[in-house]
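Long-time lurker, finally posting.

We've been working with Adenylate kinase 4, mitochondrial (Hemibagrus guttatus) and I want a structural starting point before designing mutants. I don't trust myself to interpret raw outputs, so I'm hoping someone here can both generate the structure tokens and explain anything notable. Sequence follows.
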Amino acid sequence: MSKLFRAVILGPPGSGKGTISERVANSFGLKHLSSGDFLRENIAAKTEAGVLAKTYIEKGALVPDHVMTRLMLSRLEEMTRHSWLLDGFPRTLAQAKVLNSAFELDVVISLNIPLETLKERLRHRWIHPASGRVYNMCFNPPRVQGVDDISGEPLIQHEDDRPEALVARLRHYKDVAKPVIDLYRAKGILHMFSDTETDRIWPYISSLLSTKIPTDLGDAQRVRTH
Ligand SMILES: Nc1ncnc2c1ncn2[C@H]1C[C@H](O)[C@@H](COP(=O)(O)OP(=O)(O)OP(=O)(O)O)O1
Ligand SMILES: Nc1nc2c(ncn2[C@@H]2O[C@H](COP(=O)(O)OP(=O)(O)O)[C@@H](O)[C@H]2O)c(=O)[nH]1
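Top reply, 14 upvotes:
Generated this for you. Predicted structure of Adenylate kinase 4, mitochondrial:
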């Protein structure tokens, strides 16, 4: 079997992790696992972890590390034959350490996007809650205003994407993420990308991954988690 490829994408809310992960999944045939989407699936299915996580997410808090690591590692253990890209996990140093002890990562992509750009993007972000599909009224609008392209269901805005909640949320993200970024930098696998536009960052990420991903990753892996 060819060597599997394991990657993580880091960045503050609005930095484009979900958008870029979709492109990576489509172009390179990796599985994209988003912690936020996976939590929402667990909440909808009322699993034990989902019921527990809901109480934290409703308060706008992070899900405790032990709940999150158990949930994500058990999902990753089902994906041992696949290459993957994680988005939203690990979020804390404790989570990163647990992930490290279970898997060896090949690449960590870190998105470094100016604060003003993040605020502007999140103001225009609309999501389809059931699937986690993300739109932006300027960058990638839905075909019909306010409606999900696939299901036809209404789109909503996250409460915590409102400008008043944003600055505190982004500051908190930075404090928690710094030791995670430092850990991956020290391991020599961190690749940082800075720009205001996803379309300008994407060619660099694409060429980085082209040099790292085994070329025989087949179409069989072109399965997305959502
Ligand atoms: N790795 C994690 N550790 C702890 N809590 C998490 C983790 N991933 C997600 N959560 C929680 C925090 C959020 O309240 C909720 C939804 O996550 P997510 O969809 O990533 O949205 P978000 O608004 O925090 O970030 P983003 O805008 O980057 O997607 O789930
Ligand atoms: N204007 C603009 N919006 C973008 C760009 N890249 C992503 N977005 C939008 O910005 C919002 C945040 O992107 P998302 O991928 O959800 O980021 P995440 O929170 O890091 O997962 C979404 O509404 C995207 O559609 C970009 O280059 N320009």
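Before you design anything, note these points.
Residues 13-14, 17, 35-36, 39, 57, 62-63, 68, 88-89, 91, 95 surround 2'-deoxyadenosine 5'-triphosphate (ligand 1) (CB under 6 Å).
DSSP finds eight helices and seven strands in the chain.
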